[in-house]
Each structure stands twice: as structure tokens, then as C-alpha cells.
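Project outcomes to date are best conveyed with an example. Our students and postdoctoral researchers have been running inverse folding experiments weekly, and each run begins with a structure described purely in C-alpha cells. The record below, which covers 128 residues, was selected by the lab manager from last quarter's runs and is presented without edits.
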């Protein structure tokens, strides 16, 4: 079955975060480069574009990039502590960090931001 072959390839990748390979430190970041399928990839990319670009225009590429990588690392570290048997794949930790930063940005600048209410609703919708 091609689906089973894809899953085997993903699980055996040197980039995926695996609890039994915890000492391979690059896995705490590299898992964010892989995705479990097209829907996962498209959703994460869409959120990165819709939320990350406006943040980048205000705060700059370096700061937003650091935030994103910190979210990816926090996702793997948090999972390794609280659910030590889970394999990780995808950039969701970084995406959630961008969503949280966008939410904070909207709340702090609510009075001067165009369409602030719509932005809050969009973050709430995407986060659920």
C-alpha cells in the first residue's frame, strides 16, 4: 500500500522527532521541515503567509524568524516532557507561535489597527 510506504518513510526519516532518538538534537528543529501530507503542508503554509507576513512587515524578518524557530523548538521540548512517546512532524509549533504573536500584536495595537475585530476573529477561527 503506498500510504503505508509513505508513513514508513516518514517515521524512519532522520529529520522527524522521535522519542527514542532524543539525543539527536537536530531533530528538535528539523521535524518542522516535514509534513504528514498535503493538507497539513497547505494549512501550515497558508497560516504562515496570512499571519507571518503582516508580522514580518511590522517587526522584521529576523525577529519573526527567531519567534518561529523558538515555537518549533518549544513544541518539541514541550512534547518530549509532557507526552514522551509521541513522534512529531510538521511546523505547527512555529505556526502557533506566529498565531500567538499576531494575537498579542492585535490586542496591543487594537485602537490603531485597521480591521482589528476581523483579525481577532480570524485568529480565533484558525486556532480552533
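After processing, the design step wrote out the following sequence:
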Amino acid at each position: 500500500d503506498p500510504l503505508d510506504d509513505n508513513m514508513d518513510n516518514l517515521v524512519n526519516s532522520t529529520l522527524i522527532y522521535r522519542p527514542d532518538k532524543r539525543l539527536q538534537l537536530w531533530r528538535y528543529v528539523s521535524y518542522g521541515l516535514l509534513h504528514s501530507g498535503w493538507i497539513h503542508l497547505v494549512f501550515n503554509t497558508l497560516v504562515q503567509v496570512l499571519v507571518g507576513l503582516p508580522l514580518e512587515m511590522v517587526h522584521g524578518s529576523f525577529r519573526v524568524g527567531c519567534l518561529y524557530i523558538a515555537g518549533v523548538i518549544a513544541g518539541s521540548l514541550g512534547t518530549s516532557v509532557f507526552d514522551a512517546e509521541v513522534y512529531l512532524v510538521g511546523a505547527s509549533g512555529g505556526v502557533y507561535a506566529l498565531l500567538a504573536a499576531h494575537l498579542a500584536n492585535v490586542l496591543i495595537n487594537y485602537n490603531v489597527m485597521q480591521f482589528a475585530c476581523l483579525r481577532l476573529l480570524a485568529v480565533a477561527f484558525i486556532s480552533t
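The two ends are 32 Å apart (CA to CA). The longest helix spans residues 38-59. The training component of this project remains on track.
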